[in-house]
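ok trying this again, last paste got cut off
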Amino acid sequence: MAAVNLTNWRESPHNIWAFQNVDKVLSTQVIEKGSKHHILETQSRSFDDFKLQLGESPALDLAGYQKFVATDGMVILHKGKIVHEFYGNGNDATSKHIMMSMSDRIISSRDRTSS
């Protein structure tokens, strides 16, 4: 594999390494955890009913989707509790990782006061 550099660091397969080592590619600033952080409670839920149809391919379950899009990490919150947590591509809950799309979210149009 060619060396990771400014022209290829966001492209597969270089991005897997670069997103965890961006400080070796770009000038970065680490955002430290504050002293008043709150540990979220975990309340696991089943996502067995999750299905995503992409074109003519067979429907993907959640694990299949995470693999298909090469998910580095995913945390799903519901009512302030972690209901799903996943890490891939050598990441774990303590891995350093670039913040680009970490703030992406899908918000339901459903009334936020209901379950």
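PB: full thing came through this time. The first strand starts at residue 73 and ends at 78.
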